[in-house]
Structures are given as C-alpha cells and as structure tokens.
# Entry
Amino acid sequence: ESDLDLIQKTRESDPELLIIEGDATDDAIIEQVGISRAKALITTLPKDTDNLFVVLTAREMNKSLMIISRASDDRSEHKLRVAGANNVILPDKVGGSHMASLVTTPDLMEFLDHISMMGEDETTLVEIQFKNLPPDFNHKSILELEKRYQTGARIIGFKTPENRIIVNPAPETELVPKSKLFVLGNTSQIVRLKEALN
# Structure
C-alpha cells in the first residue's frame, strides 16, 4: 500500500482529520502543519538523522512543544534528547501506543518506565492527581485514603510535587498538592475507585 493510498483511506475514514502530504524534513512543511502553536509532536521517520532534523527544527520553532521521537539505534537517543526531544522511544522496546500515551499521560508513562512488570489484560494502571481527591484529604496519608475507599485497587506509586517517583510508597506517605498517585487494579476495582472519588 502506497503513502497516497494510506492518505486517501485515512481521509475517507475521518474527514475532519487534517492531513498534509509532504516531506517532514522540509522546514516549510513543518511550519505549514502549525508547529509553532502545537502542543505535541511525534516523529517516527525510519532514519534517525531525519528524526534528528525534525526535532531540531520543531524545537527551534516551539520552545514549549512536547516532542517524542523514534530512534532505531541506542546511540541516537542522547543526540535526540540534546536536540530537544522530551522522550525517545526505541521501537524494539515499545510500540506506537506508548508514544501516543506520552502525550496524554506523560507522568504515567514515566512511571511505567520505573517498573518491570506489565499487568494482565484485566489489569489497569491509572493516574490520579491530587486535585481529583476529596478536599479533606489534603495532608492526609495514603493509609487513610485506602481505609475510606476499600475498592481492592492498590496504590503502587507516588509522584511528589518535586517530580520524584516513589515505587510502593509507605502507608504514611502524605498526600500533598501537586502530587500524583498510580493505582493498579482490575477493571471493576478501578471503576469502583473512580466512582467513589467522583
């Protein structure tokens, strides 16, 4: 299937999706897609040198842009980060869905990089921000939270306001503004927890 066929099929399946055909390493194309006002960029070109060029150009055009780049060689990771990539993904290790998730839940994906296990199909890992907890839990402990909401889900990670990740936090860990919890459970446990918090 050619690029033109793929573009046509994508346009037919989602007419509202904006597709611009062109060379991603061309400054004019990068500018045309609106990189200066974009929130995130994922570059997955086959050659690391091309991804490096896109990262450099995009970072120059938008200093606050979230940039996620593919790399085929471990040695390219450092160069891409120096060029301005926030995250570099090696496809032999993770897939495209991981790259997309970095845009929407960067802290969650960063946490996944800190643990070696991945859950079964029924198991879900979710991110809960402090601002989504009931107001009376300000400066309360994880233990107090788990006692009130006995859903069976387990709090397996904590991110401090200083962005330090704690795996398997102590029950007495204090819940403070701008912190985050990472909760592991099966589908029904996570649903019960979300219903309780809402």
Notes: The radius of gyration is 20 Å. Residues 115-121 have pLDDT under 50 and may be disordered. DSSP finds eight helices and seven strands in the chain. The first helix runs from residue 3 to 13.
